[in-house]
Amino acid sequence: MMAESNRAAHVVEEKTVPAVAETAVVGKEPEATEAVRLNKRVHEDEELLDIPIQVETVEVERIPVDHWVDGPVGVRQEGDTTIYPVLREVPIVEKRLKLIEEVRVTRKQTSKHVQERVRLRREEITVERDGDPQGPEPIRAPD
Predict the structure, then answer these.
(1) Could you tell me if 60 and 67 are in contact, meaning their C-beta atoms sit under 8 angstroms apart?
(2) Residue 71 per-residue DSSP state
(3) What is the pTM of this model?
(4) How many angstroms separate the CA atoms of 43 and 25, rounded?
């Protein structure tokens, strides 16, 4: 047994030492060394610019026409002028004569002899003159 105890003593005398390795870690950390302030200024300068601008005007003119057309009239172009016709429907009442009948009246003359007794009058005037040897002169009414 003695051998066993030698062995055990020997074991006790052995030590295990861990091996440690050191490693270096290199890093960067920002460090403020100074502060900087920025100021912004806006400067305005006036310049005279010649800018071409096109201006368009419209002239409206109303022209009375007042005449009859056979149908719708379309929009037309004459140079730079566009002409828009303005139409109005107008009812037209027309009177026309229509002959529906003729009434005919005819006059006819006939002659016949009729005998009848009638009284006819006749006037006579007598004019007397003084100093006339022949006597009064009868004046008759014209027949």
Answers:
(1) no
(2) S
(3) 0.35
(4) 52
